[in-house]
Amino acid sequence: MKVTFLGVGEAFDETQTNVCLLVEAAGRRMLMECGANAPSTVWKKSTRADYLDGIFISHFHADHSFGLPALVMRMWEDGRTRPFYLFGPIGSQRFIERLMKMAYPGMVENVPFTLRFRELQRSHRWDDWNLRVVSTRHSVPNLGLRLEAGSPQKVFCYSGDGMFTPTAAKLYTGANLLVHEAYMDDGLTKTHCSLMQLERLHDLARPERMALVHLRRDLRKQKDEIIKRYRRRKWTIPEAGDSVTC
Ligand SMILES: [Zn+2]
Questions:
Q1: Distance 60 CA to ligand 1 centre (A)
Q2: CA of 212 to the centre of ligand 1 (A)
Q3: Does 143 score more than 90 pLDDT?
Q4: Which terminus of the chain has a lower count of CB atoms within 10 Å, N or C?
């Protein structure tokens, strides 16, 4: 399983692409999130119309989903024919179709390949991939994800945005790689996660590796200091373009 960090930024960081991950395992390629400024980063990776099998959207904020119309539109222009899978929370189809209609009127009705929406509740089997989700605490409904794939089986977990719940900590347990948002330094926000709170999650879920993304723009500037402060944890704060093989 290979995970590439195409983007690692929060919504309003002038130096970063919104969080956008590429997961490759068992012959499949799935994008995680496609925020407003993410599509060009995806196209720099590959311009093949069939490159991606699908996408997972954790929630409907612009920095996680507003790049979708451009992503799909370019696949159309570049001649995609095979279906494209869209995984997300309940209401995904309605939200994404509305977004596409606003962006490019007529595209939903005329796109020449099938958009297969999969609104996730608990678990979903996608051939050799097993997806499980839980709700976390964010200002809008957000899904935390556990993905199991490959042989030997590898486990990738991703938080989307938001504060983890006990159920989410359980879902992430034993992950080979846990990618979690870290919006705040300390303090107890109810709709995001702080570095302080992540120490607790680390102790609960004990992932093999933990990578922090979506750091608030001022916090991200202290990256070296944070890594030093938490060196016992061996957390990584990836840069765009970095990848991890589990
Ligand atoms: Zn959000």
A1: 7
A2: 15
A3: yes
A4: C
Contact between 130 and 154 (Cβ < 8 Å): no
pLDDT (tens digit per residue) in 12-44 = 999 999 999 999 999 999 999 999 999 999 999
- For the chain, give every domain's residue range: 2-245
The rounded Å distance from CA 195 to ligand 1 centre is 17
Superfamily of domain 2-245: Ribonuclease Z/Hydroxyacylglutathione hydrolase-like (3.60.15.10)
Output the pLDDT for position 9: 97
Cα of 232 to ligand 1 centre, how many Å? 29
Sign of the Cα torsion 35, 37, 38, 40 reads positive
Q: State the distance from the centre of ligand 1 to the C-alpha of 225, rounded, in angstroms.
A: 25
120 CA → ligand 1 middle, Å: 18
Write out pLDDT tens, residues 49-79.
999 999 999 999 999 999 999 999 999 999 9
CA of 61 to the centre of ligand 1 (A): 5
The model's pTM:
0.96
